[in-house]
Amino acid sequence: MDIQAFQYDSKNIKSGILHIGVGNFHRAHQQFYTNELLKHEDQQNWGICGVCLLPSDEKIVNNLRSQNLDYTLTICGRDGKDEIHKIGSLTELIWGVEDPKAVVDKIADSSIKIITLTITEGGYNLDKETNEFNLNDEKIKYDLENPNNPTTVFGFIAEGLRKRKADGTGSITILSCDNLQHNGNTAKRSFTTFIEAQDKNLAEWVKENVTFPNSMVDRITPATTPEDVVRLNKKSGIDDKAPVYCEDFTQWVIEDNFIAGRPSWEKVGVEFTQDVTAFENMKLSLLNASHTLLSYPSFLKGYRQVDEAMEDKSIVKFIRDFMDTDITPYVPAPENTDLEKYKQTLIERFANHSVSDQVSRLCFDGISKFPVYIMPNLAKMIDDDKYLTRVAFLFASYRQYLKYKVDDKGHSYDVAEPWMTENDEKFISSDNALDFLGLSAFKSVDLKESGSFIQLYERFVSEIKNQGTTQVLESII
Predict the structure, then answer these.
(1) What is the pLDDT of residues 127-184, one digit of tens each?
(2) Can you say whether residue 170 is alpha, beta or left, with left for phi > 0 and alpha for psi between -120 and 50 degrees?
(3) The pTM of the whole model exceeds 0.85
(4) Cα–Cα distance, 417 to 440 (Å, whole number)
(5) HSE (CB half, 13 Å, CA atoms) of 457?
(6) Whether the Cβ atoms of residue 117 and residue 178 lie closer than 8 Å to each other
(7) What are the tens digits of pLDDT across the range 37-60?
């Protein structure tokens, strides 16, 4: 199969961006756009220096280093036709566990104009109830007291900015690429709260020298299993230890607020705007919320691949009715966007056989996803006395998934919830279904105050346990 090699001499590329969190999504999204951009000679100061901070990153670091940081990206078309790109825009890779000083020095380097982040929804360390930065976290407390020996992303960036200030290497932009409403505002709150608590002088410098643009990112990128590695390499003919694959749809909308300059990503399809709110709301409320709605009922029905679940007409109708009836009233269409076409495209994207995303990936870390994707619109639906059947069914499904860990077919499974608290575990184990609604993920809305929601939720908890997810879902579509 033809492979699209990168159209530049990698020896000419210099790092202008430092990215923290070199996972699959970053390598299929930001790296893809930047790889396309670097063929323009006037843009070759915008290579990306990757930074990994976790002990668990050792494997990806070693794999990428073993192949000169290059890797293949397979873009899977909804028409069944795939494209393979060789990506060379990752110019350096630093592992903070191995060399923390190198991370700090690179943040302070005058050539670095932007720090980008994919640290997951939960990575911003915000209290689920107040949405404020949690200064009492043990790792945060350690970094506050040990500024010269950071362990968290907040400690590393604070120390790097402190050195940047001392060295006089100039202003910088911090750009979140995570799925959060107003992700730039969120990043600003988290980093400035940490820095204010650690170093008041640095906090004053940050006010004048750091900007935090909001952005909206979109590209379905599954986790890569060992079987995927074999499959992708067979297709490409390249022995790639770190291949990535993704869907053919991609979107990136960014608030144009870069204090130290930026790449001309608009040359390769990125949209710059003064306000990303409408784009964020559309994507989080329709795509991400629908993914969450799809995940737990599909998993409980026994599906493990999203495209297989999308062959189930009851799942498709469940999602489409949620989009059309429950959510569309709260989603004003962004400029030049046809909302009906956007929703239809989402259904096609979820059903893409070539991508075949994992349902388990969608189920992962619901504790961080519910507050961002589900709770804001649910609050409006309750206030407006809207139809709550589908959302109540989702909550009952999530409880069943977390509490019993056995699907309708009798298959047991493990749950991955990295941000679950001890109190959450108590609420899940309780036999009183109402206790579950005390989960940290739901704290922004007092669900027990909504009689209509409670009535539906308790009914579905009982029915799912006694009849199974399949039968209950059929009864509500």
Answers:
(1) 877 889 999 999 999 999 999 999 999 999 999 999 999 999 999 999 999 998 899 9
(2) left
(3) yes
(4) 12
(5) 22
(6) yes
(7) 999 999 999 999 999 999 999 999
